[in-house]
Each structure stands twice: as C-alpha cells, then as structure tokens.
Design goal:
The protein is α/β, with parallel strands linked by helices. It has helices at about 10-25, 35-45, 60-70, 85-95, 105-135, 145-155, 175-180, 205-210, 225-230, 245-255, 285-290, 295-300, 315-335, 340-350, 355-370, 395-415, 420-425, 430-440, and strands at about 5-10, 30, 50-55, 75-80, 100, 165, 190-195, 210, 225, 235-240, 260, 270, 275-280, 305. A five-stranded parallel beta sheet has the order 2-1-3-4-5, with helices on both faces. Strands 7-10-13-6-14 form a five-stranded parallel beta sheet.
Length: about 450
C-alpha cells in the first residue's frame, strides 16, 4: 500500500515538480497551495507524512508544524527551505519537525529522508496499536479527580518539562508516567523505568550512569547506564526519595547540565532525556529532616502531578472492578465475570489503603476462588482473611453479613423457595447456598412474627 504524502507549497512550479518526483517514487500525493488548506485535508484524508514549504503567505511552515504536532502527533513533518533561511528551519525542528531539506530539492537527499519519516510514522502507529492492545495507557475512571488528572496529563505531555508524580502506593504512578511518555514527542524513543527502592544502594549509581570494565570488583564488562539507554526518550525514576544524598547531588548535575560520567571513565557524556520522577513520601518533610536535597526537589518539581488515592474517587470503583473482573475472568475462566450490584456496593464502601493495586488483587482472588459465575459479596471474604478485604478490621463485617443474608433472601423470594434456581440466580452452587443459609440464619419461607 502506497504511503500518502501531503505536499504543501504556495509556488505552483515547485508543487508540480514535487508531485512528479513523489509519484515517480511510488508515493501517493495530496498537493495543496496553502498551510490552511493542508490542515483542512489532514482532517478529512489519511496522511502518512507532511512535506511543507517553510516560507508561505498566510499560515507559515512553522505554524503548520505546530498545528500538526498538536493535533496529529503521529504524523511527521518535513520542512523545505531555501539556503538563506536555515535559522527558520532550525526553529521548525525545535517545534517538532521531523527533518528539513533545502531548495533546490535533491532527490538523493529528499527520498531517503522521506523513507525515514514513513518508517517513523509506521513505528508510531504500531506502538500505539500495541499500547492499546496491552492497555498500557488506559486510565480507568470518569470521576472529577480522574478527569482533572487526565486533563493535566494531556497538557504536560506536550512539553519536555521535568515532572514529579506524587501519590500513595498502588495509585498508578508508573501508569501515569507511561501515559505522559506515549503521548509526547518522545513516544518513538525508549521509556526506561528504574525502581530506586528496589536497587541495592551500592549499585544504583552504576545502574543509572553505567561503568567501564574494571571500574570496581565484578565489573567484567563495560555497561551502559539507564541515562544512555533512555537517550532521546524518557527516564522514569520511581521512588526517587530512596536514593542517597551523594547520588542526589550527581542526579542534580545531570538535570542542570545534561551531562554525566560512567564509573571508571573521566569522559563527559551528554544525554537528552526527559525525567519523570515519582514518590510516595512527604518530600517537604524529608527536606526539613535533611534526607532529601531541596535544590533537587525544585529541579524535579517543575510540574507536580498528584494522583488521588482510591478513597477520593470512589465513583471510579465500579469501572475498575468491572475491568479487573473481566480481565481475570478471561484469564482464568475464558469468560468475563460480572459483579452483582451488592458486590459493587461492598467494594465502594472499602477503605482500600493499598489503592487500585489492592482492589485489583482482591478481584483476582475472588475470580479464582468464586464458586459461581457471578461475583457476589461472599466472594470477597477469603479463608485467610478474618475480615473482608479493603476494609479496616471490624468496620464492614456486619455490613457484609447483612448484605449476604439479604441477597440470599431476595433470591429465595424471587424463585419462590426453589433452592437450585436461587443458587443459579446468585451464581453459586446449591451446596454453597445451603452453607450460607445456615451460616446467616436464612430460611424460606421466613419465620413469621
């Protein structure tokens, strides 16, 4: 299938020559004579690459680059400029242009450049498709807190500013970091995640900056650090508060100067990475206690992103629960499992101190252990748990027992006391129904006054 090139040039002679060159190289061509017309065609026609003249009346080539970068970030833009206007081409590159070529256009330069742009566009689409398939960038929630967070993510993704994500354990800090990366201009480059809390303090400097052979005992080969691996992309430093004060000073230098040295090598290397850091610690208090550098904090906290705990967005729990029940139902039973309304209400009432991660694990266990085809409140009390998951001790036990008893009584009433039908309606087997009836003192017909 031919790649489609949108060619924008106000000069009819250059436009015709460009069309002939592209068509002879087996590209499909959409040719227009103004930047605004080009943007209009982008809204209605499939395009793989935009090639735009830089100096045009009306909407300039730089404005075209900005608009395409903002509204169609997966489409690369090549700008064409005269020899005397290289500074404008450089400005367009800083705005996000893929590359620039000079007039008169040399086919031996232009066509390879175009091939790279098409390959880049294909890679971006494949990455987006894979991310959608794996659910990498899916934030689940429609609560006001979630909408505010997604709005902020959308805005900060367009920049290269350093970001500090703050949130409790299990709220989804790495997910937000991935969302920001894959919506940024760096999406085609690596996203490297480093869990600072999981690394031995003696090796974390080597992990970040790399080392030369013989730099220390056990360094039998040269190793490239995470800054080099992430070059051009994003480095996510999870639990940044856990690194030592000495390493904080070295990290500050990278943020200030964009340079570092490998262990055992005095050569200074430059790096082009965007830093996203995260923490679940009160860094302001840690600064007062002398455990975290204030200057590093301000370098990291250029754009603060706070992720609300699950208890502040309870409206999202039904969506999250349905998502996890469907995922684990397909994994373990080859069919998504629905949740009974009473089960959803129970989950919404929970404290979930471990946030989304705790909810996810609770639903996974419920799916594995459930006897029926519908998740009910009883499925969220496990043999090893003295109390229902997601709740502090004792606060919801009575509610759980009452909800279970009411669900069983309603099922028996609905089926006029037919135990097998009631069990099927509840999504459990008949033996489980009898056991629960005995445990909760439920009978049919209910005893009279």
């Amino acid at each position: 299938m031919k790649a489609i090139v949108l060619l924008i040039d106000d000069d009819p002679v250059d436009l015709a020559a460009g069309r002939i060159l592209l068509e002879s190289s087996d590209y499909g061509v959409l040719a227009v004579r103004s930047g605004q017309e080009g943007l209009d065609r982008l809204r209605t026609d499939p395009v793989d690459v935009v090639v735009s003249d830089l100096c045009m009346p009306g909407l300039s080539g730089e404005a075209v680059v900005e608009a395409v970068r903002r509204n169609h970030p997966d489409i690369p833009v090549i700008v064409v400029t005269g020899h005397g206007d290289i500074p404008s081409a450089v400005r367009a590159m800083k705005l996000g242009a893929f590359d620039f070529i000079t007039k008169p256009v040399d086919p031996e330069v232009f066509i390879p450049c175009l091939e790279r742009a098409v390959e880049h566009a294909c890679l971006r689409r494949e990455n987006a498709s894979l991310r959608a398939e794996l659910g990498i960038t899916a934030w689940i929630g429609t609560s006001p807190s979630s909408r505010d967070l997604l709005d902020l993510v959308g805005r900060v993704s367009e920049t290269d500013s350093t970001i500090l994500i703050e949130g409790e354990t299990g709220t989804g800090k790495e997910l937000v970091a991935r969302m920001i990366h894959y919506r940024s201009r760096r999406a085609a480059k690596p996203l490297i995640a480093v869990n600072c809390a999981a690394l031995n303090p003696n090796v974390i400097e080597s992990e970040l900056f790399g080392h030369e052979k013989g730099a220390f005992t056990g360094a039998v080969n040269r190793r490239y650090g995470r800054f080099e691996e992430a070059d051009g992309g994003t480095l996510f430093l999870d639990e940044i508060s856990e690194i030592s004060l000495d390493l904080q000073a070295k990290l500050l230098r990278v943020l200030q100067e964009g340079t570092f040295e490998r262990l055992g090598n005095n050569t200074t290397f430059r790096t082009d990475v965007r830093i996203i850091a995260s923490t679940n610690r009160p860094l302001a208090q840690w600064i007062r206690d002398g455990r975290f550098r204030e200057d590093l904090y301000y370098r990291l906290n250029v754009i603060p992103v706070r992720i609300p705990p699950l208890r502040e967005r309870r409206e999202d729990i039904p969506l999250l629960a349905a998502h996890f029940a469907a995922r684990y139902g397909m994994r373990y039973r080859n069919v998504p499992l629905p949740l009974a309304p009473d089960a959803v209400h129970l989950l919404q009432a929970g404290e979930w101190k471990g946030n989304v991660r705790e909810l996810q694990h609770a639903i996974e266990r419920a799916v594995v252990l459930a006897a029926g085809s519908i998740l009910t409140p009883v499925d969220f009390r496990f043999p090893a748990d003295p109390e229902p998951v997601g709740t502090p001790a004792g606060t919801l036990q009575a509610a759980l027992d009452r909800t279970t008893a009411e669900s069983i009584a309603a099922a028996l009433t609905r089926t006029q006391g037919h135990k097998q039908h009631a069990a099927e309606w509840l999504g459990i087997d008949r033996a489980t129904l009898y056991r629960l009836m005995k445990r909760h003192g439920v009978d049919y017909p209910p005893p009279g006054p």
